[in-house]
Amino acid sequence: MDEEYDVIVLGTGLKECILSGLLSVDGLKVLHMDRNDYYGGESTSLNLTQFMMANGSLVRILIHTDVTKYLNFKAVDGSFVYNKGKIYKVPATDVEALKSPLMGLFEKRRARKFFIYVQDYEDNDPKSHEGLDLNKVTARELIS
Prior knowledge:
This protein is of the alpha+beta class. The protein has helices spanning 14-25, 57-64, 94-99, 105-120, 139-143; strands at residues 7-10, 30-33, 80-83, 86-89. The chain folds into two domains: 7-70, no CATH class; 80-143, Guanine Nucleotide Dissociation Inhibitor, domain 1 (Orthogonal Bundle).
């Protein structure tokens, strides 16, 4: 082990890993250590309040510092609600909307239409916009 470093980073939490990665990308000699026998500190896994958006600045930093090879990403399988003593999956497709016990008939039809609109929407095809400018309408206007 070398004895001279430009920077010593203690801890392997998410902030420390980002800092270590950014410093090493800038050409500094970094010693990165943790007193624990596991990697990740308080950030060994992310909960829903810490969820990273796929194109957010945190993800860009992780990719830039190349620490993504030490992380595992998993897509969210779905959203669920607890209602009247049971857990139900929140519909995410037109087929799920029609089968969902969470909505009445009219809500199911409206949800199905919304999912089809989203699925068929093409940024470069104004015909798929159905006359709506998504940069100007509110979510309420879009759903109605």
